[in-house]
Design brief:
There is one protein chain. By secondary structure, the protein is of the alpha/beta class. 37% of the residues lie in helices and 20% in strands. The strands form 2 sheets. The chain has a 6-stranded parallel sheet, sandwiched between helices. The chain is globular, with a radius of gyration of 19 Å. The structure holds adenosine monophosphate. The site of adenosine monophosphate (AMP) has 17 residues, from α2 and β5. The site of adenosine monophosphate has 17 residues, from α2 and β5.
Length: 284
C-alpha cells in the first residue's frame, strides 16, 4: 500500500494508473476508521482495479465552535485497517497541502444544502463539495463511495458530479451499525457511558417510524413526528435538532407518506457536546 501526503506524488501515481487502463475507486474519509468506512473500502475493492482512500480532516467544512481541534486522529491504525481492506493508495494531505493560500474559489450547491444539516451548519456543505471537487481533480476516479449515514452529503456530492460533469459514478453504501443498532461514527468515541446509552434514541426513533408506516399504515407525517418527539423526550441527555421526513431524491418536505416513492427519515440530535445523525430510507 502506497501512502502519499502530497498532491504531486498522488497525481503522478494516478496518471500512470490511468494510462494503464485500470479503474479507480475513491473513498473519501476524515480518518478514525471504523467498520462503516471499511465497508466502503471493501465495496470499492470489489468494483475497481485500484482503491484509493483519502484521509483528510477538512477544516473548511467545520464551523466555529465545532470539533475540528479535537477530531480523532488514528493514522497508524487507519493504515493498518486500510491495508487489511485491500486499499492500494492512501492519500493523506495536510491542510497546508490542500489549502496553501486563502481559498478564493468554492463549490456551492443550492437547494438540497438548505435544509436538514445545512440549516444549522451554514458553510458545512460548501466545505464538503469544495474538497470533494478538489479530490476528484487530484484522483480522477471511475467510482466514488459514500455512506448512507450522511445521506444529505451523498445527495450534495451527486449534484456536483452531475452539474460539473465529473466523470465519476457515485455509489451509496448502507449504514453499518454497532451490535445494539447505533450507527457507527468516528464521533461515537466522544460519548461517555451514559451518553452512549442515550444515543440509542436514534435507532429507536427510526424503528418506531418504520413500524408506524409499514405495520400500522400511518401516512400523516405530523403523526409520525409527534411519536418520534415523544421518544426523544424520554432521553434526558438528548437535545433534538431536527426530524426530517421527505422525498429522498430531492429532500422535498411532505405531509403524507406517498406510495411508490423513496422517503427519507433523517434525524439529528446533540448528546452533551456530541452531534449525531442517523436516517432511514423507506418505500411503500
Ligand atoms: P467521515 O470520515 O465521517 O467523513 O465518513 C467518510 C465516509 O464514511 C462517508 O461517506 C460516510 O457516510 C461513511 N460512513 C461513516 N459512517 C458510516 C457508517 N456507519 N456506515 C456506512 N458508512 C459510513
Amino acid at each position: 500500500m502506497l501512502i502519499y501526503n502530497t498532491i504531486f506524488e498522488t497525481r503522478s501515481e494516478i496518471r500512470d494508473i490511468l494510462l494503464s487502463g485500470k479503474t479507480i475507486g475513491l473513498v473519501p474519509t476524515m480518518g478514525a476508521l471504523h467498520r462503516g468506512h471499511i465497508s466502503l473500502l471493501k465495496k470499492a475493492r470489489q468494483e475497481n482495479d485500484i482503491v484509493v482512500l483519502s484521509i483528510f480532516i477538512n477544516p473548511i467544512q467545520f464551523s466555529k465552535g465545532e470539533d475540528l481541534d479535537k477530531y480523532p486522529q488514528t493514522f497508524e491504525e487507519d493504515c493498518k485497517l486500510a491495508l487489511e481492506a485491500g486499499t492500494d493508495i492512501v492519500f493523506a494531505p495536510t491542510s497546508k497541502e490542500m489549502y496553501p493560500d486563502q481559498l478564493k474559489t468554492k463549490v456551492k450547491v443550492l437547494g438540497v444544502t438548505e435544509y436538514l444539516c445545512g440549516e444549522k451548519r451554514a458553510n458545512h456543505f460548501t466545505g464538503v463539495t469544495t474538497v470533494i471537487a478538489k479530490f476528484l481533480n487530484i484522483v480522477p476516479c471511475d467510482n466514488i463511495y459514500f455512506g448512507q449515514k450522511d445521506y444529505q452529503q451523498f445527495l450534495v456530492v451527486k449534484q456536483i458530479i452531475n452539474d460539473l460533469n465529473f466523470p465519476a459514478e457515485i455509489v451509496l453504501c448502507p449504514i453499518v451499525r454497532d451490535y445494539d443498532g447505533l450507527a457507527l461514527s468516528s464521533r461515537n468515541r466522544y460519548l461517555n457511558k451514559e451518553e452512549r446509552q442515550e444515543a440509542l434514541c436514534l435507532k429507536e426513533a427510526l424503528d418506531a417510524a418504520k413500524d408506524l408506516i409499514t405495520a400500522h399504515k400511518i401516512r400523516e407525517v405530523k403523526e409520525i413526528e409527534y411519536t418520534l418527539i415523544h421518544i426523544f423526550e424520554c432521553y434526558s441527555l438528548v437535545k433534538l435538532e431536527y426530524i426530517f421526513i421527505g422525498i429522498a431524491d430531492n429532500l422535498e418536505p411532505i405531509t403524507k407518506i406517498p406510495e411508490g416513492r423513496k422517503v427519507l427519515i433523517a434525524l439529528a440530535v446533540s448528546i452533551g457536546e456530541t452531534r449525531l445523525i442517523d436516517n432511514l430510507l423507506l418505500q411503500i
